[in-house]
Specification:
single chain, mainly beta, 1 helix, 3% helix
């Protein structure tokens, strides 16, 4: 079984990639996502991208799960507000051991102001384990707040 590691996971507004190997420009990198002051919740974030740098070794194919989780105050349960699957195909993996991708998260449901985390997970099953489990590969955090 191949190995997969994520070195960078950066939430931004727009990622531009260009050039032969490709270089990346990350625009709108910020921990805080500001929505207009008159926004009524729940709402959606229409522009959210995540820049991810992968390191692989002997990996043929991989499916990643991307989820956005609302982080509640202590003592309350967290809520998954967005899910998406992301496949790394053989074409991506043959480029080399290190490669960059930009993942567009479209129409992210936001139930209210507060802190959120973006998690990249991978389902793995080891031969000695009865059930598969999710391995967290990367986590990025952001806050949603109204403009003042």
């Amino acid at each position: 079984m191949g190995q997969l590691r994520i070195q960078h996971c950066i939430a931004n507004t727009v990622t531009r990639q260009y050039g032969p190997h490709p270089a990346s420009d990350l625009l709108g990198v910020d921990f805080i996502r500001t929505v207009p002051a008159n926004t009524e919740f729940p709402t959606t974030l229409t522009k959210l991208e995540v820049f991810v740098r992968f390191f692989t070794y002997k990996l043929k194919r991989c499916r990643l799960n991307i989820s956005i989780i609302q982080l509640p105050p202590p003592g309350l349960q967290h809520e998954v507000v967005y899910r998406q699957r992301f496949d790394l195909l053989a074409l991506d993996l043959f480029e080399g051991r290190c490669f960059d991708r930009s993942v567009k998260l479209v129409n992210v449901f936001i139930p209210g102001e507060g802190d959120y985390s973006i998690r990249f997970t991978r389902r793995i099953r080891r031969p000695w384990e009865y059930r598969s489990r999710h391995q967290v590969l990367a986590v990025e955090y952001f806050r949603v707040q109204r403009a003042t």
